[in-house]
Amino acid sequence: MNIAYNAALQAATAALAAAGYRASRESHHYRVIQSLRETLGTEAAVVATFDAFRKKRNIVGYERIGLVSDADADAMRALAIQLRDQVVAWLRTHHRHLLPPTS
Prior knowledge:
This protein is an all-alpha fold. The protein is built from four helices and no strands. Helices cover 71% and strands 0% of the residues.
């Protein structure tokens, strides 16, 4: 789950940076995740799901092992792919200059 979570977080961070912002260090992950509603217009339910994975990841990383199921990992991977695709589509529409040239 951690790799998928980091991929989704990087996608959200890229969108935030493309919009001309960056999250402060305090509550960084939370702020980046919440910014998706403003940058991409991501649905509240998707943001809530991502934030729930953030909370679960914190518990797993600091308090308990074995809390993440295979289903959780698969869902986080699907969310990461969804966010990546949303960010790329949004960049094509709003910030094409930030994308590499296509062949």
